[in-house]
Amino acid sequence: MQRPGIASVPSIRPGHTGLSHPHTLQTASDFAPDLIATKPVKPCDGGVFGALNLLLKKEQILMLAAPGRPRQIIARPMNAPASPASASSRPVIAFPPELPVSARRAEIEAALQKHQVIIVCGETGSGKTTQLPKMALALGRGRLNAQAGERGRLIGHTQPRRIAATSVARRIADELQTPLGEVVGYKVRFSDRLSPGASVKLMTDGILLAETQTDPLLKAYDTLIIDEAHERSLNIDFLLGYLKQILPRRPDLKLIVTSATIDAERFARHFADASGQSAPVLMVSGRTYPVEQRWRPFEESRDYGLSDAIASAVDELWTGQPSGDVLVFLPGEREIREAADHLRQHLSHSPLTRGAEVLPLFARLSQAEQDRVFAPHTAPRIVLATNVAETSLTVPGIKYVVDAGTARVKRYSLRSKVEQLLVEPVSQAAANQRAGRCGRVSNGVCIRLYDEKDFAGRPRFTDPEILRSSLAAVILRMKALRLGGEGGRVEDFPFLDAPSGRAIADGFALLAELGAMNEAQALTPLGRELARLPLDPRVGRMLIEARERGALREVLVIAAALSVQDVRDRPLQAQAQADQAHAKFDDDKSEFSGYLRLWQWLQDAREGRAASSRRSMPAQEDEKGESGRATAAQRAAQALAQARRMLQKQEQKNESAPGQNADFMPETAPVHPPAHRLSNRQWEALLRQNYISVRRVREWRDIHTQLRTVAAEHQWRENTRPASYEALHKSLLAGLLGNVGCKLEEGQHGHAGSHGGEQYLGARSIKFHRHPGARLRKKPGKWIVCAELVETTRLYGRGIAGIEPQWLEEMGGHLLKKQLAEPHWEKKAQDVIAFERATLYGLTVYSGRRKSYAQADPREAREIFIREALVHGMAERNVPDDWPRRLPFLQANARTIAQVQELEHKSRRQDVLVDDELIYAFYDAHVPEGISNGRDFEKWWRQASQANPRLLTLTREELMRHEAAGITTAAFPKMLRLGGVDCAAAYLHQPGDARDGLTVTAPLFVLNQISEARCEWLVPGMLKEKIQALLKSLPQKPRSRFVPLPESAARLAEKLGAPDAFGHGSLTDALLQIVRSETGLDVKRADFKLDMLPAHLFMNVRVVDEHGRQLGAGRNLAALKAELGGQARGAFQALAGLKAAKAELNADAAPANPAETPQAPQTPAHPARAALKTEADSGAASQRHTRWSFGELPELMEISRKGQTLIGFPALVDAGDAVTIEVFDEPQVAAARHRTGLRRLFALQIRDALKYLEKNIPELQKMAVLYMPLGTEGQLRQQIIDLALDRAFLMEPLPASEAAFAARVEEGRARLTLIANEIARLAAHILTEHAQAARKVKDAAKAAPEAAKDAAEQLQRLLPPDFITATPWSALQHYPRYLKAVQLRFDKRRADPARDTRHMQEARAQEQRFGRLVAERKGQQDERMQELRWLLEELRVSFFAQELRTPQPVSLKRLEKVWAQVGR
Questions:
Q1: Segment 204-257, tens digit of pLDDT
Q2: Cα 950 to Cα 605, 871, 893, 945, 957, distances in angstroms
Q3: Residues in CB range of 51: below 8 A, 6 or more apart
Q4: Is 228 left (phi over 0), alpha (psi -120 to 50) or beta?
Q5: Which helix (H) or strand (E) segment is 1266 a member of?
Q6: I need a labelling partner for 227 at 20 to 30 A (CA). Which of 82, 517, 543, 1085 fits?
Q7: Would you say 1189 and 1298 are in contact if contact means Cβ atoms under 8 Å apart?
Q8: Taking each helix axis from N to C terminus, what angle separates 1227-1245 and 1273-1289, rounded to the nearest 10 degrees?
Q9: Which DSSP symbol is given to 278?
């Protein structure tokens, strides 16, 4: 006896998931065809994988189900001889005359006798399906007509769906007046109603394909009828190609291909005979009742949509009163729900249609809702269906059809590798099939919601499935069976429509992904093992991996669950309740684990231990007790024996209800059943209570049983211990490597976290969303794997689980594309390391993984090692810390290179040191091949250095191209004396670098004492280059006198570089004097364009604190002082203090011989220093002076401390009614404070004169009125007096002794009154002009608000409250002109407002730029900035009042030159 096999498991395909026949209650899966190992195909609302596509092997498990009795399983070897029927049992063959096909009977029978293949096509309802088998019987074919002792053969009749096969078998049996199964029977999955002597066998095309495995030439048949061939599924196309190959070897086999709408000529050419003669085509025209076509196109708008168009069509069909059921075809479940709601509301408005039923018809409906469609009824009915009702299924009572003209069509995207279920217009053939659903009971009407032109433009037929599906399973099967041409080439197989080369390549790519195919497109050992499995390649790959990882038991359950429609129902009226009931099955991050929880719950429910909530359900790892493990071990050991015993049993031991699968019990029941086991009725009630489909659960069990039988046949042992999450999901991942995804972060790649769930980046750069119906309690994580990717309104991933990215490396290592980037030397690893990046179909699995580059490219790794470790290692500190000790040549070479580089920086030449290539060539010549890391190099060096310790030591001669002449310490000193302190000097030749040129590091406390003039001289070695650059910046006339410039610069550098000239005063002033004397031209200082000089010709001052930390650096000394001057002053006082001054004063005042010191008080030799000493001693109580009684005031004081020489600047400080003496570190600050203090001291000497002057300032009252917007009369008077004192007494040179001070008092007393009167007159003029300008501004505020605002801001800048004393006298004299320009501006503005606006914007831009510079320098303004500030006022005069003229030419271009000088 042969080994038992497994019945083929079908796949639910888009457009063909239907509901039960009114007289045959079967599940939605009964509508699915039995497919040969193909990529799972399913509708948008069907199961995940659709089917496992199990093939029949050697024997078939035949399940006989009779009403009212349990199924029985019998074993029957295939091709067994059958006994001919007795004469008494021979049926009466009659052909109904009303069927159009009966009229063509003679012609069809004649063609069938003459030809091996005939093509019969005609309209729906012509009777072909039921009459053609009877014609074959009438011609003497089938077992019924076999002679005694002759081996009878069958008439095989295929249908695309199980329900069609069973219903057609019953109809033919009824017409032959024989019991079902005696003459005419059927064989579909899980059911076989075919007796040994039957002649006509109805079956799905998948069953016939499965039989080719054990009966390659199909010798069990003498006639084959392929019905509904227009469906062009993978099975049909593969079957037609296979039949074309075997027909020449079976000349006795007759083949009839038929359908209602078929491309007859194509089929005829496909089955041409050896002479090239096409197969005959017989057309059967006419139908039972005519169908009227009505075209009702509509334009979708905001107020009128598809639901409104359907309602209008129903109103048209039911004019007056409903008179027949209406079948409406819609593309999907969502459209059905929307249309149902709209129709119910629409029909409720009329009393005649209020009682009409609106029923949905699609695959996800519960069994009870499916049965309602086929149940007898009296009320009018509207059935809203997807294309499940398009073919092979007759909804009873349909008189009218409304066709929306669209359907969801499954297409496999070769680009994204996903199944797309998009709404597309149906083909003409499909539209005609829909129209054929009416006209079965009376004259029909079909309303098409599109126009006739649209229909005419559509393709005649729906694209064959082979042109829109993955071919991986087909290729695997063909390779295993060696079908096709030489070598089993897919391209040579006689497909009706050959798939494209791209589709074939995609199939090979999927097999390569699974590891089933090598690069030579030959099967691998894994591929041969997959080919032996009657399963989809992905499922087979999962099972093989699960076998190795000890997760076979769990994966069998999951694979069976993925092959059927979800057993969990969600009725339209109770979706929330269903979701709540199903929540206990949900897992945290894996829908696959949810299937296992559901499976365990079903077992517990059967035993009366069902959990009512998730909390009461045990975890998967803890739910198996000792008895559970024993049961699992028994199942693994007894699986094959159990399957064989089932074939031999005639009756079930279990007294279960009809349809209960007996092999489920050993799987779920323990060794000793519990006492409270539920009955079948109780169990089914419990399932319905939890919204679980009983029939789909039974189908799940059946598929699981078959899968276990497959595993048992291959002697695979199921795991006895629960598999871990990792082992389970790695097993699933093995078959789903193309369905992984990585969650995109928010905002990445246009991510939008919308209602579709998080967005994931999948393989090949596709983006998909987590399905809204995903049954997970938590978010699955960043990395997920999906059972499938389906595109509807958007691309969704369904059946998801969280995974770890490292699993991808383990499971998909053969698919990873690895790239090495950024190879570099790492001192810690002492190796050349590259960063490895691995991608799986474009998804980055990992990146930045460190890997030794020598493994990928040893030659380049060696080169990098030499360059980065040996050539640049010491300079960049990129070698291990102990290498200078262990490899002494590195430090020696680094010192030699540093010496040569220093010569380069000083000479500002880059051709002294040899380039890196020559140094690399030196090491390359000595280091052996194959050494690319530190360990190998050290090992070699220890041996090589014993023979020659200086093998890798570079000499100075080898590193220098030529000698650097003139590079001496005198020309380029290492220390420069600035502000009395020796500062370190560094040289760098790197144009563009901030440190290019000469960099001097100065301590913070000496910053304010650094002379800007000294910085101009740089060092003697750079003097010639700076002089040449300054000469080059001169105008052409004076510059031409010094041509050639290099020689003149060398001559002048020698002259100015003399010890008595270098560093004295300003270099620019010294050069200016020489240029004037040698050219005789009136060259101005401004003629030296300092902005034309390169940056390295200005000293870069680097300021550091006492710890050596850099506080600031720059080439603009004034800016540095503005930024750090306050800190420098504090550092100076902290370092020097007044104690140093005190010590010096004591030393100066002490006599040479202390013994001769008289006891009486002595007058100090230096009263000023004594005063300083007294201040230092008294601390807060400083000595106050009202007259010059402190002797001569020194200009500066030198203080030595800790080897540093500090310079202080003494000054008189105004104390109100007296003055004090203080020491400052900044000469400018000291000078400013000294002038104020000296003014106070002069005022104290002429108190009487000042009292008189205060009372006799001319026109003070009038001026005070004009000054009121700015301040008080007292403030105005004080400013006039202060300025008069400055001009009368504080002329340079300021008095430094008591005698000079007294003389200056007498001189100034005589002219004080005259000077005060002059200042008063100027102030009166300024205030008068200011008042007039203010009135102009006020008058223009409404007409020109922007100009008025700008002028008001200018007035505020010019006249602050202290403008008389705050403004330099030279600038104050120009104030009347500036204010007059403001007035003229508004007079001119009326003529040309645009010009005024343009000039205003230009002036504002310059002023804002100046304001930013002042802010950067913290309010400090040097002489250049003061000059620029008043040039900006002159610019306004030139813009708005040119007739007033300016003292010097001024323009934006000239200002840019000044800006360049200030910027330095």
A1: 888 898 788 778 899 999 999 998 887 777 788 888 888 998 999 999 999 999
A2: 87, 16, 11, 7, 15
A3: 9, 10, 11, 12, 32, 34, 35, 40, 41, 536, 563
A4: left
A5: helix 1260-1267
A6: 82
A7: yes
A8: 100
A9: P
pTM exceeds cut of 0.70? no
Closest CA to 402 of 353, 463, 355, 343: 343
Q: Which residues contact 502 (CB under 8 A, 6 or more apart)?
A: 414
**What is the end-to-end Cα distance of the chain in Å, rounded?**
105
Measured distance CA(357)–CA(382) in Å, rounded: 6
pLDDT tens per residue, range 317-355: 998 667 889 999 998 887 898 899 999 999 998 888 888
Tally of CA atoms within 13 A in the half-sphere of 259 that contains its CB: 24
> Tokens 């000078």, residue?
1231
Residues contacting residue 12 through CB under 8 Å, at least 6 positions apart: 28, 29, 31, 32, 41, 42, 43, 46, 47, 50, 51, 363, 565
User: Among positive and negative, which fits the CA dihedral 719, 724, 727, 731?
Assistant: positive
Q: Is 999 helix (H, G, I), strand (E, B) or coil?
A: strand
Cβ 27 vs Cβ 695: under 8 Å: yes
Coil, helix or strand at residue 652: coil
Euclidean distance between CA atoms 905 and 967, whole angstroms: 10
Q: For the segment 1141-1151, what is each residue's pLDDT rounded down to a tens digit? A: 444 444 444 44
User: Which pairing describes strands 1219-1224 and 1204-1214: parallel, antiparallel, or unpaired?
Assistant: antiparallel
Averaged over 852-879, what is the pLDDT? 90
- Which residues 6+ apart lie within 8 Å of 355 measured at CB? 379, 380
Positive or negative, the Cα torsion across 892, 895, 896, 897?
positive
- Closest of 285, 240, 279 to residue 119, by C-alpha: 279
Local structure of residue 899 (DSSP, 8 states): H
Residues written for the chain: 1464
Task: Using DSSP, state whether 156 is helix, strand or coil.
Answer: strand
- The residue among 417, 477, 474, 489 whose CA lies nearest residue 815 is 417
Cα gap 43→275, rounded to integer Å: 42
| Confidence (pLDDT) at 1426 | 86
DSSP assignment letter at 866: I
Sole residue written with tokens 């211990």: 721
**Contact (Cβ atoms closer than 8 angstroms) between residue 1238 and residue 1300:** no
d(CA 248, CA 251) in angstroms, rounded, equals 6
Which tops the pLDDT comparison, 1169 or 1191? Answer: 1191
Task: Report the C-alpha gap between 889 and 558 in whole angstroms.
Answer: 67
Q: Which of 438-442, 1081-1085, 1133-1137 has the highest mean pLDDT?
A: 1081-1085
- Give me 717's structure tokens: 């042992």
Where residue 979 falls (left for φ over 0; alpha for ψ -120 to 50; beta otherwise) is left
| Six-digit token string for 994 | 């901030």
Strand partners, 1428: none
SS (H, E, C) 1300-1359: HHHHHHHHHHHHHHHHHHHHHHHHHHHHHHHHHHHHHHHHCCCCCHHHHHHHHHHHHHHC
Is 1239 in a helix, a strand, or coil?
A: helix
Non-local (6+) Cβ contacts of 149 within 8 A are: none
Q: What is the pLDDT of residues 468-525, one digit of tens each?
A: 777 887 788 777 766 655 455 777 788 877 888 888 888 888 888 888 888 888 888 9
3-state SS record for 24-39: ECCCHHHHCCCCCCCC
Please count the other Cβ atoms lying within 10 Å of the Cβ belonging to residue 678. Answer: 17
- Answer whether 757's CB lies under 8 Å from 807's CB: no
